[in-house]
Amino acid sequence: MMWELRSVAFTRAVFAEFLATLIFIFFGLGSALNWPMSPPTVLKVALAFGLAIATLVQAVGHISGAHINPAVTLACLVGSQVSFLRAVFYVVAQILGAVTGAALLHQLTPHHIRGSLAINKVYNNTTTGQAVTMELFLTFQLILCIFASTDDRRSDNIGSPALSIGFSVALGHLLG
After folding, report:
1. Transmembrane region positions (predicted)?
2. Helices (H), 32-124
3. Residue 126: which residues within 8 A CB-CB, separation 6 or more?
4. Backbone phi, then psi, for 38, in 5-degree steps?
5. pTM of the entire structure?
6. What is the mean pLDDT of residues 6-33?
7. Distance CA 78, CA 75 (A)
């Protein structure tokens, strides 16, 4: 397990997770900012997040697996697809990447546009329990899509895993 820490491939994979998460958060949150000429819509935000994740899965999937989300990393750990050590480093890199991406967006966005920086809110009298349950179902469908589209045991032509994962993320944003 410790040999993994010393490998260049491990370092590249952890950095890929950091960078991909940074880019994902920067563009995803950026799409939800309230620009006067282009206010955010649910469709715009869903497409931005979906296209961003599809692009990033295609770009860094061969380096790190392109988890870009601690929930995905945890699912891969439970599914014995990554080691415990790699999962810990990935989650730390993802958190640091997300914070860095949000901080960069915060600094590059004019104050009057920035607002709450696209912070999510629960609407329509939805309770916290209902929101958490919905998030669990949406995360489950994302994990199911990832596992199904990247399964090496499949012999059928499954198309583009990056595209199907991107569509899954867009679906989650449209529904959630």
Report:
1. 12-33, 45-64, 84-105
2. 42-64, 70-78, 84-108, 111-114
3. 134
4. -150, 75
5. 0.89
6. 93
7. 5
